[in-house]
Design goal:
Layout lengths: L2 H17 L2 H6 L1 E9 L10 E2 L1 H12 L9 E8 L2 E7 L2 E2 L5 E2 L2 E9 L2 E9 L1 H8 L7 H8 L1
Parallel strand pairs: 1-8
Antiparallel strand pairs: 1-2, 3-4, 4-7, 5-6, 7-8
Helix pairs in contact: 3-5
């Protein structure tokens, strides 16, 4: 696939995330897909997910927000089978905190599907927002299992 087709696939992922469409997200990944956060700490943010776990993240995150998560593309660059995206979100959490993170995603593709996604974001903000969830809160176990 060409660069513009790859960018279109990435745009369709953002649309699926914003709809909370797990089936569409799953359909965009290869069988050997994996997602990695590039955070350094805290330890609970150092995770790698397979395609099933990755497809559930938007709906799982939305359980701790006042409304479903919405990711907005700020800029996109592509070369060969790689697409890099600057994105942002601005959400209010049920715990009263504001989750307004900025991201840099690197999507690696094969035959119109994602083989790998790496996420760079502000781990300090994630810790201050999601780390505020108490362990006995059912949302905490949903986030840990995502």
């Amino acid at each position: 696939m060409g660069i513009e087709e790859n960018k279109a696939v990435v745009r369709s992922w953002f649309d699926a995330v914003n709809r909370g469409d797990e089936a569409a997200i799953l359909a965009l990944t290869t069988e050997d897909f994996f997602f990695t956060t590039m955070a350094r700490q805290p330890e609970w943010l150092l995770y790698q997910w397979d395609r099933e776990q990755f497809s559930k993240v938007p709906s799982t995150m939305s359980t701790v927000l006042t409304s479903p998560i919405q990711l907005k593309i700020v800029d996109m660059t592509a070369e060969g089978e790689r697409v890099a995206v600057e994105a942002e979100t601005d959400s209010e959490m049920l715990n009263g905190r504001r989750y307004n993170n900025r991201y840099h995603f690197v999507f690696k593709m094969r035959d119109g599907k994602f083989t790998e996604v790496r996420e760079y974001s502000c781990s300090h903000l994630a810790q201050s927002c999601f780390g505020a969830i108490t362990p006995d809160d059912p949302a905490a176990s949903r986030m840990a299992d995502a």
